[in-house]
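Look over this one:
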Amino acid sequence: MTAPDKRPSFLRYLFVGVFFGIVATRSQIISWYRIQEMFHFDSFYMYGILGSAVMVSAAFVLVIRRLSMRGLHGDQIEIPPKEMGSGTRYAVGGTLFGLGWGLVGSCPGPIFALIGNGVFTIFVVLASAMAGTWAYALLRPRLPH
């Protein structure tokens, strides 16, 4: 008898990504206008979506920890405790993330949903996100963690 294949299935991730894109499109979270409404405090809509996502995520983390849940292949799911430190890196990182989000009108999550909806100027954002990821990987050994 052979062991189950632990390699991730590309089709599974493709399905989840397409599903996320449809949900992002239908819920208007990829809308530049909705994001600008949020940053101008003109509408509660995006804050409601973000707040409900935080509450659902917190509930799932609580359930995973309380029930000592296991992954699809039987391995224990471990969520290490977060070390806050002074909070400076979170303030700086959050500020940079928020500035980019406000200037571009999109967070990194729906980049591919926007491309799928024909917003091809978002390729500049995708290239910038990739460059930022590469720069972080290059600088990570020199950064305080």
